[in-house]
Amino acid sequence: MTAPPRILSIAGSDSSGGAGIQADIKTITMLGGYAMTAITAVTAQDTTGVRDLQVLSPEMVAAQIDACFGDIGVDAVKIGMLGSPDIARVAAQRLEQLDVPVVFDPVMVATSGAPLADEATIAVFERLMAMAMLTTPNLPELAALGGLESVLERSPAVLVKGGHEQGDMLVDRLVTREGEVARWEGRRIETRHNHGTGCTLSSAIATCLGMGLDLEEAIARGRSFVRAALAAAPGFGKGHGPMGHQAVRPG
Ligand code: PXL
């Protein structure tokens, strides 16, 4: 058996299990990766909203990152919720010294509408975009970051996720400084159980990059995983429930 790709998720914990670190561990594991974590913040949340939130110290986040790189080693990194500007800076500082593919999900708002990044943290996103192989904003995040041109000044590649578009057919586009290099069109999956889709997609792409797939293949495989997990949502909770990561068949 070949060794699984070693994937580090730098992200926040979601007690409800649908998003954040929990979604990342499920995704990485289901895709055949080995999941490691640097937890930035702990949220107390359910499917209807974030009840409470505690952010860890930047030293503690740095120590988790160092522990993963120092012993087991890391083949690819996913960055999600950062929690504070100091954590964002320390993550950037560590990753700038290392040569592994990084997927940056510029998390700003939870599916329930709760803010997950303040202005000062978002200001450090520029540095993270510059060291990421891919940045994966949804449409509201793209607008908040100043639009596609502005993001491309930093990040070499952007996956513009169309999930917030109106209509029946949704388009995700991979864009680099050379222009659009790929697009994927899919019929909207009608469900309110869409909590954690962004976390799941970014960690799936990181896992596939860690396996050695190229960017387009990694995105294609990540999208398929998200669509299968959405279709398998168990229907838990009174709000935006979790996806069905555990029900996705390999392949
Ligand atoms: O999906 C964005 C997200 C990221 N990280 C954590 C979250 C959420 C959404 O709820 O809870 C910890």
What would you note in describing this structure?
Helix content is 36%, strand content 24%. The chain has 251 residues and is an alpha/beta fold. The chain has a single domain (6-151, 192-243), classed as Ribokinase (UDP-N-acetylmuramoyl-L-alanine:D-glutamate ligase, 3-Layer(aba) Sandwich). It has a six-stranded mixed β-sheet with strand order 3-2-1-4-5-6, sandwiched between helices. α2 runs parallel beside α3. The protein is globular and about 45 Å long. The model has no long low-confidence stretch (mean pLDDT 95). 3-hydroxy-5-(hydroxymethyl)-2-methylisonicotinaldehyde binds next to β1, β2 and α7.
Compact summary:
The chain is of the alpha/beta class and 251 residues long. 36% of the residues lie in helices and 24% in strands.
The largest sheet is:
6 strands, mixed
Fraction of residues in β-strands: 15-25%
Listed once per kind, the bound small molecules are: 3-hydroxy-5-(hydroxymethyl)-2-methylisonicotinaldehyde
Query: Which class in CATH terms?
Result: Alpha Beta
| Number of domains as seen in the coordinates | 1
Task: Write the element-wise H/E pattern from the N-terminal end onward.
Answer: EHEEHEHEHEHHEEEHH
**In order across it, which strands form the biggest sheet?**
3-2-1-4-5-6
The count of helical stretches stands at 8
N-to-C span: 17 Å
- Given the C-alpha coordinates, what overall shape results? globular
Could you estimate the helical fraction of the residues in percent? Answer: 25-40%
Q: What is the second-level CATH architecture?
A: 3-Layer(aba) Sandwich
The total strand number stands at 9
Q: Kindly identify the CATH topology.
A: UDP-N-acetylmuramoyl-L-alanine:D-glutamate ligase
Summed over residues and divided by their number, the pLDDT gives a mean of 95
Decide which structural class fits the backbone: alpha/beta
Q: Which residues form runs of ≥5 with pLDDT under 50?
A: none
